Structure formats: structure tokens, C-alpha cells
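Notes for week 9. Today we move from apo structures to complexes. The key idea is that a small molecule is not decoration. When we ask for a structure prediction with fe (ii) ion present, the ligand SMILES becomes part of the input, just like the chain. The input block below holds both the sequence and the ligand string. Read it once before you look at the output, and try to guess where the molecule might sit.
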Amino acid sequence: MAYVVWSKEYSVGIKSMDEQHYKLFELTNNLYEAIKTGRKNEAVVETFRGLVEYVQVHFTAEEKLLEKNEFPFNQLLKHKQEHRDLIMEIKVLFEKAKSGSAIVSFEMLNFLRNWIITHIAESDKRYGTFLNSKGIS
Ligand SMILES: [Fe+2]
């Protein structure tokens, strides 16, 4: 059973972003599997690295899309700030895991999952509506 299951309710109505969000879900599931099956810390860290890197790739792509399509500036700033906050938190967790000072726990994973789900369902859907109104999907 996957840890986080993609469904239509997570669609923001923009194909490229839905695909990237789907990939985030997959990477989160990979990390869950790595922890659940008790893989060695190095293996878990490598899986975690994949997620940390992709989160950044995705946020950059999303922000570019919003800038290009003139998403209202104050909302863009707020959105970028949410991204930056998560990147900071996820990097702290990643560094701890990498140094071995903490193992990647289900608690960390829950935090990540909840953040991703809430961000998509609330913040990302807002730009989806905006872009759709400009004929972009
Ligand atoms: Fe976002």
C-alpha cells in the first residue's frame, strides 16, 4: 500500500504541474518504503536526497511558470516564501539524516507528506484557478 496516493482531488488543473506533483508523491513513497523495509541509513539518505533535489527542481519550475504568466506579485511572493520555508526545513532534516545524528523517521515523513498535500490543496490550487482563467492548462 502506497503511503501517499495520488488522486484527482490533488489536481491543480495544470498538466505539467500535476505530473511533477505526482512525481513528488512517488519520491515520498520511495522514502517511506526505504524506511519501512529497514534499509540501511545510507540507502535511506540516498532516497531522501532524491526527494530533496526534486522538491527544488519542482519549486523552481513552478515559480517560473507563475512569473511567466504574471501571477499577482504579492501572491507570488507568498508562494515563494512557502517554498523557501519548506526547503529550509527539509534541508535541516536531510543534513541530520546525512550526518547520522538522526534517522529518517515516520514522524519526519508525516511532516513532509502533510506539507506537500496541504500546499498542493491550498496554495497550488489557487494558481491553478488563476492560470486556467488565462486559458492555460
Ligand atoms: Fe507550490
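The chain has one domain: 15-133.
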